[in-house]
Amino acid sequence: MPTPPAPAFRLYLLRHAKAGWALPGQKDFDRTLDDTGFAAAKMIGEMAADRGFAPEVLLSSPAVRCRQTAEAFRCAMGEDRTIRYIDALYTGAEDAYRDIILGQRGAASLMVVGHNPVIEEILREVLGEQAAAIPYGYPPGALAVIDFPDRPQSGILPPGKLAEWLDPACHAL
Questions:
Q1: Can you give the pLDDT at residue 163?
Q2: What's the pLDDT score for residue 2?
C-alpha cells in the first residue's frame, strides 16, 4: 500500500495539561501544573514521539502551566528544539491565535501550546463538522494533529482534517 502524501501543512494544537488552582495571592499566569498535569504532559509528549510527530516550530503561551507543558513535550521529542513564547497566546483571543498561526508561513508544521477556550475555537474553525467527533470539549493536555492539503494564506485558516487526537485522560496516568 503506498504511503499517503505528506500534508502541505500540519498544525498541532496542544492545550496545557491540568493545572492546580491559584494559591492565595497568586496570579493566574503563575499557576503550575499539578501532579496529574505533569504526568499527562510527559505522556502526551511520549505518545506523540512514538507516532513520529515532530513539529518544526513550537510556540507557547508564556503562562507557567503552558511553559511546563511545552517543555515536557519538547523533552519527550528527544531533540533540541527551541520553544518561542508569545504573549498573545496568553492574552489573545481567537483572532490573535489565527494571526500567529498564519504568520508562520515558512514552517511545514507548527505546534501551538495554549489555553481554552481559544484552542477549542481554533480546532472547531478548521475542522468544521469533523469537530463533532470530539463531543466533550478540549480536555487539559489533549493534542489535536490537523493536516491541511494547502498552506494557510490570505488571512484565513483553510479547512483541515483531524489526523490524530491524543487525550491523556483516555490512558492510564
A1: 94
A2: 57
Mean pLDDT value across residues 157-168: 92
The pLDDT > 70 percentage for the chain reads: 95
> E strands of 3-95, at which residues?
9-15, 57-60, 83-85
User: Which residue is it, cell 496542544?
Assistant: 14
Spatial separation of the C-alpha atoms in residues 159 and 128, rounded to whole Å: 7
The residue to which cell 483516555 is assigned: 170
108: which strand partners? none
Q: Which helix (H) or strand (E) holds 161?
A: strand 161-166
Q: Is 31 helix (H, G, I), strand (E, B) or coil?
A: coil
Contact between residue 135 and residue 83 where contact means Cβ atoms under 8 Å apart: no
| Assessment of whether the complete model's pTM goes beyond 0.85 | yes
pLDDT value of position 172: 44
Q: What are phi and psi of 121, to 5 degrees?
A: -65, -45
Amino acid identity of 117?
A: P
Q: How many residues does the chain have?
A: 173
